[in-house]
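User: Please run a holo structure prediction.
Assistant: Happy to. Please share the sequence and the ligand.
User: Here you go; the ligand is flavin-adenine dinucleotide.
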Amino acid sequence: MAKIAEIVASSKRPTFSIELWPPRSPESEAKLELALPVLEQLHPTFTSITYGAGGSTRERTHDLVLRIRRETSIEPMAHLTTAAHTKSELVYILKRYLGAGVENILALRGDPPLNGDAKLAEGELAHAIDLVQLARTVGDFSIAVAAHPEGHPDSPDLETDRKMLAKKLELADMAITQFFFLADFYFRLVDDMDRLGISKPILPGVMAPVSVKTLERMAQLSGSKIPDQVRERLNRASGSVEAVKAVGVEIAIELSEELLKRGAPGIHVYTMNEASTTVQIYEGLGLGR
Ligand code: FAD
C-alpha cells in the first residue's frame, strides 16, 4: 500500500493526479467505463474520488474506491466529509476503508445541509480538522485536506482562513486546492503557509472550464474568481461545444505550465470524468515524454 502524501513529497518529477466522481446514472456509469482505461494509461500518481456531503454517494464512493484499488494500477484517495455524518458513522467508514486496504483519504467538511441556526450535537464533528484528528485515532492513514487559494467563502477574511488551514495542515499530510485561474493565487497561499511554518505539499487543483454558465455556478459555491480574460476567451468560443472545450483545455494547460515552472509539486486535474480533456492536458504539458 502506498502513502500518497509520501509519494508526492518525495517525487523527483512533478506528479500528475486526477479527481473522479462516482457515477450517478447509467449514462455517467457508461462514461466512466470508457474513461477509466484511458486515464489509467496516463499512469496518474493517484486518483481522488469525490463524496456527496449529504451522504448520498456513500456506497458509490466506497465501491469506486475499492474497484479502482482492485482492478486498476491507480492508487485511490477516498474523499470523506464530516457533513451529515455522526462521529460513529465516520469511524465505521474509516475502519471499513482500512479493512479493505485503503489508507489514503481526503478529509473534508463538505457543505452541511444544516440551516444556519441548527446546532451540531455535542461531540459531533464540525470541521475537516476534526475528521483529520478522528482518522488519526482510527488508523495509520495518509491524510489530505482541502485548501482554498482565494479563501473559503465562509471565512470572515483571508488571514483567518489561512490560520485555520495552517492548523489543519499541521495535523494532515498534504493539501489539494480548490480550482483557480491565476497562478499567483496559488503561490500566495504557499507563501502564507510557509510564513505560518507549514511546508507540506500543496497540490494545485486545475480545471478545464467547459462553459461560462457551469463555471459561474461552481465559482459561486467555491469562492473562486473568474478572471475577465477567462470569461472572454470562453465567450468568444461559445458558438460550438468543441471550441469551448478546446479553449478550456488551453486555459488549463497555460495555468499548469506556469504552476509547474514556478515550482508547484504537481497538478491535480478535476477531470469531471472526461478522459479526452484530461489526456489533452497531460499531453499538452509534455508529461508523457
Ligand atoms: P473546513 O476546513 O472545515 O473549513 C470550512 C470553513 O471553516 C473555512 O471557512 C475555514 O476557515 C473554517 N474553519 C476551519 N476550521 C475551523 C475551526 N476549527 N474553527 C472555526 N472555523 C474553522 N465537498 C464535498 O461535499 N465532497 C467532496 O468530495 C469534495 N471534494 C473536495 C475536494 C477539494 C480538493 C476541495 C478544495 C473541496 C472539495 N469539496 C468537496 C468542497 C468542500 O467540502 C467545501 O469547500 C466545504 O465548504 C469546505 O470544506 P473544508 O474541508 O475546506 O472545510
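The longest strand covers residues 15-20.
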